[in-house]
Each structure stands twice: as structure tokens, then as C-alpha cells.
Amino acid sequence: MIIDCHGHYTTAPEAHQLFREAQLKAFELGRALPDVPHISDDQIRESVEGNQLRLLRERGADMTIFSPRASAMAHHLGDEAVSKQWTSACNDLIKRVVDLYPETFIGVCQLPQSPGVSIANSVAELERCVNELGFVGCNLNPDPSGGHWTSAPLTDKSWYPFFEKMVELDVPAMIHVSGSCNDNFHATGAHYLNADTTAFMQFLQGDLFKDFPSLRFVIPHGGGAVPYHWGRFRGLADMLKQPPLAEHLMKNVFFDTCVYHQPGIDLLFRVIDIDNILFGSEMVGAVRGIDPETGNYFDDTKRYVDALGLSEEDLYKIYEGNARRVYPRLDASLKARGV
Ligand SMILES: [Zn+2]
């Protein structure tokens, strides 16, 4: 089967977005936050059937690891209570999609992060999503300030209470920033890729995986600038007296295939070990148009992977095996269905 590890609910019904706007307005005016609106099953079906579900089938994938729209997490807006209410509404909506299409979607949660608030306060939502909603991972924002980087690096002990819970629940996190409120950084064109690269360098500088040998992160968008500059990172590990990257990071860090052209995918697979790459498209998401040079959607990443001429064994790893290994709860859920 073919599992896409990176999909967001970017097409949620309008009522959900209107609720968010009302919520932020209420916060601004110092009023009580509005109630989460009722959204019908039909509205949810309509929002995915012509979009994610259609494209998944057309492109020949079977399943998507599905999370709330990343750019809308906007942890920098409102306060902790606002972020908490918005996050649980977003996660509950993912659960509704999964319940309607259990063979196609499995959930990954957003976290109720807020600038200056301890990540320990996000543990309860992770537990709820994994234990009660059956989710298999989370999206962790290394920069809840939305482009101003006011948090400590991911290797700082302030993150440890959350990592301890991830290890206990055996769930990975995708490193995923949200919208940018810094005009210097376009959200998907700069802020996302900066964050991917930054997270990798933070891991390189630190010793996080000595403390958490089983902690796992997916760095999306092909690992940001990392594969392209692999020699720089290997050289920095050497200069900083860290072990070689294979030993230091690559038992714990994985990249997806959200790279939107063939030469980029070729480079990713040439540089990074096949065991560290998970198929992903981030569809429907960052780049929605058709490449005039190929006539295909930029984010139809399966075409690029198929064009690599990989062996059956390697194709299995990329499309299914690695995802089952990095997301053991996905593996367990598939096995429970006899898949
Ligand atoms: Zn994403």
C-alpha cells in the first residue's frame, strides 16, 4: 500500500474558519470565547471528497496521515486558552474525517502551544488525541511565536516533559511551524524551510537522542536545506566534535518527500539513506498549481519517486514500511484491520 505521511485538512468547511475568526475577535474584545460550531457529516464529506480523497485516488495512493491545516495553527494569535480551544476543535474535526473514512485517513494532532507557555501544557492534548481519538503522532511547532524564534532550541530541557510523553506513547512528531507574522519570512516559502533546517541543526548541536534514544522526528519538506547541504552538516558535526550523523541523528530523524521537482527528489534519495525517507506530498497544501514544464501538479510527488527506478524492496520502504516503523500506532491500527 501507499501511505502519504504528510496531509493537512486545508479544505475544512467554512464554518470552522468562521469560528476561528469569531474566536479571535472575542479575544480581542475581551469577551467570552464562542462555542465550537456544529458541522455535519455531509459538510465534511463534501470538503474532502472533491479534494484530498479525489487526488489521493487519482495519484494512486491509499492512505494519508492527516492533521489540521498547519498554517492555521497560528500559535502566536490569542493566548493559551484561545490556542487550546482552537486546537481541540481542529483535532476533533480530524477525528470526524478519520471516522468517516477510516481506511483512508489516520489522525495526527495539532498542539495547544502558545508563546511563552510551557510545552508541558501540551501533554494533556497529546494524551487525549492518542489515547481517546486514536491518533498516531503530532505536529510540534519549534517556533510558536510565528517567525520570531522566542523559544529555546528543541534540545533544551524545557521541551523534555513533552518528549517524555512522546516516548511513553511511542508517537513521533513532525516538526512543523505555522504561519509567519514576520514579514521577512513567507510562511511556506521561507519560514517552513527555515524551521526544517533549523531543527536539524539544533539536533546536531545537542545530544537529545542520548537522553531519548527512541524519540523520533519527521522533518518535512524534504528536510529543508539539509540534504542539499549534507556536506556542510557532516563537516559541522566533525568540527563540533559530535559523532557522525548516521550515528548521532539518523536513527531518530526522518525526512519526507515533499520536494516539488525531479532533481530535488533525485538529490534527496542520493544523499539520504532510504530507511530515513517517508513518502509525503503535503497535498492539498503549500503549492497547488501545475508545473508548466511537466504538465503535472507540483505536489504530485509520487511521480518523482516512481521515476527513480527503485527496487521493489526500496519502494516498499518509502511507500509503506518506513511509515509503519516511524508510526508504530499506524502499524498496529493497520494490522488490527488485517492490512
Ligand atoms: Zn505540512
Features:
339 residues; alpha/beta; TIM Barrel; 5-stranded parallel β-sheet; 9% strand; binds zinc ion
Tell me about this structure:
With 339 residues, the chain is an alpha/beta fold. The protein has one domain (3-336): TIM Barrel, CATH 3.20.20. The chain is 45% helix and 9% strand. The chain is built from 14 helices and eight strands. Strands 4-5-6-7-8 form a five-stranded parallel β-sheet. Helix 1 packs antiparallel against helix 4, helix 5 runs parallel beside helix 6 and helix 13 (312-326) crosses helix 14. The protein starts with a strand and ends with a helix. The model has no long low-confidence stretch (mean pLDDT 97). It binds zinc ion. The site of zinc ion (ZN) has 7 residues, from strand 1. Zinc ion (ZN) is lined by residues 6, 8, 70, 176, 220, 282, 285.
Brief overview:
By secondary structure, this protein is an alpha/beta fold. About 45% of the residues lie in helices and about 10% in strands. The protein has a single domain, classed as Metal-dependent hydrolases (TIM Barrel).
**Relevant CATH superfamily:** Metal-dependent hydrolases
What fold name goes in the CATH topology slot? Answer: TIM Barrel
CATH architecture heading: Alpha-Beta Barrel
- Number of E-type strands: 8
Q: How many independent structural domains?
A: 1
Please give the CATH class.
Alpha Beta
The helix tally amounts to 14
First-last Cα distance: 9 Å
- Helix-strand pattern, N to C? EHHHEHEHEHEHHEHHEHEHHH
Question: How are strands sequenced across the largest beta sheet?
Answer: 4-5-6-7-8
Query: Could you give a short account of the major beta sheet?
Result: 5 strands, parallel
Decide which structural class fits the backbone. alpha/beta
Instruction: Output mean pLDDT.
Output: 97
Shape: globular
Low-confidence stretches: none
| Rg for CA atoms | 19 Å
Classify the beta-strand content into a percent band: 5-15%
What is the helix content?
40-55%
